[in-house]
Every structure is written in C-alpha cells, then in structure tokens.
Amino acid sequence: MLQTLGEWVWWERLWLPENVSWSDLEDTEGRVYAKASQLYGAVPCALCLLLVRYLFERYVATPLANVWEIKDRIRLAAEHNPLLENYFCSKARAPSQAEVRSLCKKTGWPEKRVEVWFRRRRNQDRPGLRKRFSEASWRCTFYLFAFFGGLLALYDKPWFYNLREVWAGFPIQSMLPSQYWYYILEMGFYLSLLLRLTFDVKRKDFKEQVIHHFATLTLLSFSWISNYIRIGTLVMAVHDSSDILLEGAKVFNYAKWHKTSNAMFVVFTVLFMVTRLVIFPFWLIHCTWVYPIELYPPFFGYYFFNVMLMVLQILHIYWAVLISRMLYKFIFSKLEGDDRSDEEEDDSDPPKERNHKSSHMNGSSVRGRASGH
Hints:
Layout: H1 2-9, H2 12-15, H3 42-67, H4 82-90, H5 97-107, H6 111-124, H7 129-154, H8 177-195, H9 206-225, H10 229-254, H11 258-290, H12 300-332, H13 351-372
Helix pairs in contact: 3-7, 3-8, 7-8, 7-10, 8-9, 8-10, 9-12, 10-11, 11-12
C-alpha cells in the first residue's frame, strides 16, 4: 500500500509536463538537478536559525534596547480572584456586557472593577516593548541579509532581466549552489517562524500569518521539486525587499526615533504597493500563467503553483488594506506602533474607585497615626 501511495505521490504527471520524466532530471555530466531529499536541509537550518536568533536577541538586540533606553511599560497586576481567573482561562478573555453583569453578581464587585480586572489580566499576557523590539530587530536583520544575498545570487542571471528566460529549457534546468542556499535559508527561516508562532508577538492578522507561512513553505517546496527554482528565487527577492523596511520602521518606532520610523514607513508603503500589487501579480504571476503554456500543455503542477501564488496575492491585498489604514492614521491623525498589533489597554482604576481607595488609604493612615500617638 505504501509503495502504491508513493507511486501516486511521485507520479510524473503531477509534477512535470508531458514527455518529461524523473530520469531526465538525474545528475549527469557535471549538471546537478534539484531533488526532494535536499529539502530536508531546511529542518536543521531552522533549528540553527532559532539558535542564532536566541543569541542575536540576547547579545545584540537587548544591549541595543538598553542603549536606546527602551523599557517595558509598568503593568498593574490583576487582583487575585479564582472565579474570574477560571472564567478568563476557560471561557472568554473579553466578556460581553451581559457576561460582566453576571460575573458582578457572582463576585459582588461593581462592573467597572470587573472590567478593569479583565483589562489588566489581558495586559499580563501581552508581550512587552523590549520583546517586540527584539523580534523586529531579528526579522529586519534576516530580511536585510536575505534580500542582498538574493540579489547577489540573481544579479548576473539572464532571467533577472528577462522573465522569458525563466522558462528557457524548462524543466531540464540545472541547480546552482547559490539557488540551493537561498532556498534552504528562506525555508529554514519560515519554518523557524512557524515553530515560534506560539511564543512570538501575536497580532490581529495571526491566522493570515499562519496561512502565509504554510503557503510559502508549500510553494517553495513544490517549486523546488518541479524545478520552478528560477521563478521561486524572484518571488522570494520581491517579498524580502519591502519586509526590511517594515521591520526597520518598527525598530525605530520602539526606540522613539519617530521621524526616522515615519520616513521608513512611507517608503515601505510605496515599495509594498509596487512590489506586491504591481510587480508580483502583473509580472511574476503573468510570467507563470502565460509563458509556460507556450512550451507545454498545462499540467497539475502548473495549476497548483499558480493557485498558491494567488493565495499569496489575496494575502497581499488584505495587508495592503491594513497598511492603507495605517497610512491614513499617519496622515490625518497619530499613528503609534503596528496597526496589526494587539496593543495594551488602559488598566487604571476608574475615577470613583481610585477616590474610594485613596480615601480608604488616607483614613487608614489617619487612624494609624492616632493609634501611634
């Protein structure tokens, strides 16, 4: 049964055009071709990147945060209340007004006090500013090296300047060492992000990020096996170009270099719109959608690869909307931080309760002094 399943999975018509077989992609005469087994290298690469990230955040990002005096906001701890804690963990982190009233009856607390408790409890689970800074610093550094490494691997290739060259001799195109390392590093990075998802800063587009990482890994894996490597390297370079500026803008925003952050955000917005909404769909997807069928009849791999590119494009449109909202806030109001982030809430006591506590403390102080005399 396993043999039959393996034969179906590696059926040539799924991965390759007609009249092309796996035997045509065997290494011969010094020409090396991409193989599925080579993708296992992404796993140790991801683990190495996790180690490098740990060292970077501890010995580079943390000292840099100290130099720029980036500090976590002092948070007020939620009062000890087992009933509310159990409700928070098992039912809802943000109860509705009706649920708040029900909890008031059970705890004997006023509504405002219950609402403040939930705000403080939610804030306790949110990552601090220094964690956000460290994460953004790491991503910015990786994207910077990945982008310029990609340019170094692509600048002297004819398909970088003429997209029709992507399909010259396809799929019998030998693999270059620079392409291998570019793929392994990118796949290792996205795999490391998946492994860190539960620990990294969670944003409003968390589900979209998960879809993006899975789509990217699936796309890269499939393009490697089907020898769509040339177009794959172009897709990676286009994506990395704007991500550098996004993470860099966050880094400077956390450091309160607001003018630098704002300038980088504006440049990022322009570059994102150009690369993700113009170059990606009208050049790269057009290249994968139109040019291949001039050489071969459409096959499963052709449709699958283009569908995965369209999934990425839908995510690009979603993020373009978020970025447009951020740009609107930047121009017409005040933009602070990342609009996708789950920002901290005001966890201060309501005025009446503060006055009550203040009066209670003052009264206790007076009584204490009277007893002392």
